[in-house]
Specification:
The complex is a heterodimer of chains A (about 325) and B (about 375). Chain A is mainly alpha-helical. Among the domains of chain A are: about 30 residues, no CATH class; about 180 residues, MetI-like fold. In chain B, helix 2 crosses helix 3 and helix 2 runs parallel beside helix 4. Chain B folds into two domains: about 220 residues, Rossmann fold (3-Layer(aba) Sandwich); about 120 residues, Beta Barrel (OB fold (Dihydrolipoamide Acetyltransferase, E2P)). A six-stranded mixed sheet of chain B has the order 6-7-8-3-9-10, sandwiched between helices. Chain B has a five-stranded antiparallel sheet with strand order 13-12-11-14-20. A five-stranded antiparallel sheet of chain B has the order 15-19-16-17-18, with no helix packed on it. Chain B starts with a strand and ends in an 11-residue tail after the last strand. Classes of the chains: A mainly alpha (about 325), B alpha+beta (about 375). At the A-B interface, helix 9 and helix 10 of A face strand 6 of B.
Chain lengths: ~325, ~375
């Protein structure tokens, strides 16, 4: 910074930095809580006051991925000796890992729920952003009869809380057999995100001068080629920003996932709290499931962070 | 060989007619400049030739073939935009190669053509850069390179140097001229800057409110403007226009501009040449260099008061007050020393233009 600063401004600057730090800490606190709980021994997870210093354990993750049942009696020393290290962690917690008749370890419901979440969120994001980009391009570049009304109609699909239509949707889905299917959720989430995606992408595409495509048209390309070769690379920032928001919405959706799915297509959000069920709630397992669930969004956002930052300030600076 | 012809072209935007019955033939290798104020229809005309805009009536012909139904890509025409429109995500090399990639040219040939055109434009050392790292002039060179690289039938340029600063504009003007002389392709160039038009054009097409006003060489439109609009639009400083009365005075003619106490002497033949326009209201048009100024009274000189002096370096523009009428004169620099001085002025009959005030048309009288 080459700007000249007075002493007063410098003090003000320090106060500003300090406030930003405090706010950041407040925002990070719940995340720290989740991450730390997911590494705590079970008996420390609900202490008052909260335990801050502890020896981290991996046992919550072992429990998260395995199917367990309560031990009726302590394992025999032979059993304990024969068990691999991770199974001993479960024994230590007063539970045992459920095995099939042939001795194979039974997985908990978590991994398949997690994969379901990935399938549903990624597919619906690709569909919503893809269709949204095409639609936005059409609205941005061509004269569409009743453009304003149509755009308003598209936005109006977001003017009511989606969960209001949950019961009719449930009945319809049951009638057409979309209940508890991946496609059922993908269609729902795509529909939720589409209006948002159209509006956001229209803003970004409006900012791309139409001379770029016109130059490509004159240079011997078709409009479709011009769209893919010129408009899409220019819209990358907008697409990244839109994709992050759509992905987060689909990834975190809880209500419809809870109502529409129960086994085959169930996503992680309704599953994670359902583990409270058996015996006393094991908060460490819930925290570890939540922690792993946070990672994809964090990674996705991290990878696209440059685009996101550019996306947020897009159009604010006159080129 | 590329000839472009516009026949009875009409174009409406909603209820506004932006091109009114435009007829124009552009010959092979000709450099045509469409000149006019913004909103006169010149850019729309250019875009219609490029295929970026449809026309409502008439024909556009390229080498005798009607093309108004063809897509832009099928017309084999290149265009340079005012905004340059270089693709920001591509390097200079890729930008220039972009039109060639559409033709599926083989790699080696493409590379040699890109490098050749880059050398012609003196941007050979910038090929790896991104457009955002270029100066305005280099950006425009790249844009021109992208247009020229595939040797199109015709080049269209829409105010290609309008976004540059004055010094760079002059430089690029010379460069465009050099390129045209070297590469020689049929070119349509749109501008609102009459200096650009005068210096570049083989022929200038002046448009106003969608109507073609005059087509001619720079010299023709400057020295023989067909109407008041052209007379005032071309030339800087602007031509003086004043309502005038012509009278006979013994064996000579006198032209008195409105508000002036005394008339300017003209040769008697003016009366004969104006015969057909008897009774019409006339306007006299005279460029500042046609108003001759002296310090001493002389034969045919009319007294005037110097009002404002604008020194422009190589010459001055002096506002002369004749009664209530003001005429601007061009003098040697420093000739009139201070405002308020009394001078004597005469009008050079050879440089005078006469217009029918009602229709604005030139009466075609030359002395």
């Amino acid at each position: 910074m080459a700007a000249v600063r007075t002493t007063g401004e410098r003090t003000l600057n320090r106060v500003a930095i300090a406030s930003v730090l405090i706010v950041t800490l407040i925002f990070l606190a719940p995340i720290y809580w989740i991450v730390s709980t997911s590494f705590k021994p079970r008996n420390l997870s609900t202490t008052i006051p909260p335990t801050v210093v502890f020896t981290p354990e991996i046992s919550p993750f072992v429990k998260l991925f395995t199917k367990r049942s309560q031990l009726r009696s302590a394992p025999t020393p032979e059993e304990y000796e024969a068990a691999p290290w991770w199974e001993r962690l479960v024994f230590d917690g007063g539970e045992k890992v459920v095995r099939s008749g042939r001795g194979e370890v039974q997985l908990s419901g978590y991994p398949s729920r997690f994969i379901n979440s990935l399938i549903v969120a990624i597919t619906s994001t690709v569909l919503a952003v893809g269709m949204g980009t095409f639609t936005a391009y059409g609205f941005s570049r061509f004269k569409v009869k009743g453009e304003g009304d149509l755009l308003f109609f598209i936005l109006s699909t977001r003017m009511l809380p989606p969960v209001v239509v949950a019961i009719p949707m449930f009945l319809m889905y049951r009638a057409v057999g979309l209940n508890d299917t991946h496609w059922g959720l993908i269609i729902l989430y795509t529909a939720f995100n589409l209006s948002f995606s159209v509006w956001l992408m229209k803003g970004f595409i409006d900012e791309i001068p139409k001379e770029y495509e016109e130059a490509a048209l004159v240079d011997g390309y078709t409009r479709m080629q011009a769209f893919f070769k010129v408009v899409l690379p220019e819209a990358a920032t907008g697409i990244a920003a839109t994709a992050v928001f759509c992905f987060i919405t689909a990834w975190n959706e809880y209500a419809f996932a809870l109502i529409m799915t129960n086994r085959r297509a169930q996503t992680a959000p309704p599953f994670i709290p359902s583990q409270v069920g058996s015996g006393l709630p094991d908060w460490t397992v819930i925290a570890s499931g939540t922690f792993l669930f946070l990672l994809p969004v964090a990674i996705f956002t991290f990878l696209l962070r440059n685009h996101l930052l550019r996306g947020m300030s897009f159009g604010a600076i006159r080129k | 060989m590329t000839q472009i012809e516009l026949r009875g072209v009409q174009k409406w935007f909603g209820s506004v007619q932006v091109i009114k019955d435009l007829n124009l033939v552009i010959e092979d290798n000709e450099f045509i400049v469409l000149l006019g104020q913004s909103g006169c229809g010149k850019t729309t005309t250019l875009r219609a030739v490029a295929g970026l805009e449809t026309i409502d009536e008439g024909d556009i012909l390229i080498d005798g073939q009607t093309v108004q139904h063809l897509k832009a890509a099928a017309r084999d025409i290149a265009m340079v935009f005012q905004s340059f429109s270089l693709y920001p995500h591509m390097s200079v090399y890729e930008n220039i190669a972009f039109p060639l990639r559409a033709t599926r040219m083989n790699r080696a040939e493409l590379d040699s053509q890109v490098r050749e055109i880059a050398n012609v434009l003196r941007i050979g050392d910038l090929l790896d850069r991104k457009p955002s790292a270029l100066s305005g002039g280099d950006m425009q060179r790249v844009a021109i390179g992208r247009a020229l690289v595939r040797q199109p039938k015709a080049m269209l340029m829409d105010e290609p140097i309008g976004a540059l600063d004055a010094k760079l504009r002059e430089e690029m003007r010379a460069e465009i001229k050099r390129l045209h002389l070297k590469q020689g392709s049929t070119t349509i160039y749109v501008t609102h800057d009459q200096i650009e038009a005068m210096s570049l054009a083989d022929r200038i097409v002046i448009m106003h409110e969608g109507v073609l006003q005059q087509v001619g060489t720079p010299n023709e439109v400057y020295s023989r403007p067909q109407n008041l609009f052209v007379a005032q639009f071309v030339g800087s400083p602007v031509m003086n226009i004043a309502a005038a009365k012509v009278a006979q005075d013994k064996d000579a003619a006198t032209v008195t501009v409105e508000g002036a106490p005394q008339g300017f002497p003209f040769p008697a033949e003016l009366l004969g040449k104006l015969n057909g326009s008897a009774g019409k209201a006339l306007s006299l048009g005279i460029r500042p260099e046609g108003v001759l100024v002296e310090h001493e009274a002389g034969d045919g000189f009319v007294p005037a008061e110097a009002h404002i002096i604008e020194p422009l370096g190589s010459y001055d523009i002096v506002d002369l007050q004749f009664g209530d009428q003001m005429l601007r004169a061009r003098t040697r620099s420093g000739f009139v020393e201070k405002a308020g001085s009394r001078v004597y002025a005469r009008i050079d009959p050879a440089q005078a233009h006469f217009f029918d005030t009602a229709s604005g048309q030139s009466l075609g009288v030359r002395l």
